[in-house]
Structures are given as C-alpha cells and as structure tokens.
Amino acid sequence: MRSKVLSWxxxxxxxxxxxVLLALEAGDELTIKDQxxxxxxxxxxxxxxxxxxxxxxxxxxxEDGTFVFGLSxxxxxxxxxxxxxxxxxxxxxxxxxxxxxxxxxxxxxxxQRTVTPSESELNxxxxxxxxxxxxxxxxxxxxxxxxGFIKPVNGRITGVYGSQRIYNGVPKxxxxxxxxxxxxxSIVKAPASGLVTLAHDDLFYSGGTLIIDHGFxxxxxxxxxxxxxxxxGDVVKQGDSIAKVGSTGRSTGxxxxxxxxxxxxxxxxxxxxxxxxxxx
Length: 280
Ligand SMILES: [Zn+2]
Known about the structure:
By secondary structure, the protein is α+β, with helices and mostly antiparallel strands. Helix content is 18%, strand content 38%.
C-alpha cells in the first residue's frame, strides 16, 4: 500500500515537472495547447518563418505558423520536435504522450471470405491497398481542416478507434474508425471541406469507399457505402452530401465507418471532433 502511494506521489511530481518544463520550453517559438495522446491530432503553432521537423520530416505550416500532425494508436510515451528558426538554429522539444487503453471487440457473422480470403482475393486485397495508398500519397497545401469537423452522420456508435478486432473468431488488425449504425441509404455529409482523392464502389474489405483530402496530409475515409454521390477530383464543402450508408465489404449490417489519416498515421476521428470542432 505504502509503495503504491509513493509511486502515485512520484508520478504526480513527474507530471507536474513535465508540464512546467513544457510551459517553459514551449514559449513563443512553439505552442501546443492540447495534451498529446495516442491517436490524437496535434495542432499548434510556431514562430513565423520557422520550420518544424517531426520524425525526420518537415511539417506543413500555414503563413501564421499553424501546423498539425497525428499520433498513432501505439505512439511512444514521448515524442520529439525540432524547431528551426529563420537563423537556422535548431531547438529540440520533447512532449509527453498519454497512453490509452483499447478494448477487444468480437464480431460474428461477417462473410467468411473476408476473414480467410482465397489466393486470388489476396491479390485483389494487395491491389486495393495500393490504390488507397496512392490516393493518400499526395500532400496538398489545402487548409480545409482549419474550419474544424462535424459528424458525417447521426447514429449510435457501435465501433471505436483502436479496439482489437476478432472476426468470426479470428484475431485481425485493430479497428481504426468510428462506426455509426445508420439505416441503409442514410446520407453521409462531408465532415470538412476537401478534395475527393478516391471514389471506388467496390474494394474488397471496405466496399464502396471515398477518401477526402483536407490538406496538410489529413484525410477522411468513408467505408461500406451503398452509393457514392461525388466523383474523383470533386471539391466538396463541409456538410455536402457525399455518399449513402451501406453494408458493402466486411460488414454485418448498414453502418458508416469513418476513418482519418495524417499521412500514413491512422488517427481517431472522435478525438478530432473534440479537438477541432467546426466553428458555429
Ligand atoms: Zn468499422
């Protein structure tokens, strides 16, 4: 008991000293207001004409110095950012990342071929992955994400980000989206404005699939759609009707699976709704 109390005190002290350090370090040069956690989208700002490097790559910044980047489901407990000022001086910053606990979800009744695909289906899955990768490859200077995000559909949440999935008894990769249960044919709205970079009506796992680029490497994907209302290359506005809910691909009933990426990193759309809500 005593050691437990002691470890609590130590971790509280560590937290306090961390945030003091963070406040001291992240002065005018680099500001991040929200606490970092696994799966979150981090938004912050740097001094004008400064540059920021994360994981060896420069981040896109707006003219006033706003940047975003995503933390993966299993992001480490500390991340590092390097700020380069206009005189080319480098300063390294560290930020603690809060760990999350993910649950396990068992799903019965998905088509068995989507759990144990055949040889030819495996080839199709590879090709699908290539199509999706290339849709997200190009990082644009769009800043649609700056206006914030709205929910793309109403409905009970039946699946969350990060949970370990077991389909028909077989463990598979974690789930990365929010699932909203919604009747077949319900209208899906664009959560933020953007450019349609993928409109495919039949991918193996995700069925009817749309990807919208919101700029700076941020994109939304919409899965299991019954029909698409926009085409590749279209520019959509926040709130526009973009698709209809369906149950295509690896699915057991009509629902919308909304996912978000920052570059190749899968982030949690639910956290994005909280940290970057649309301005009223
Ligand atoms: Zn899903």
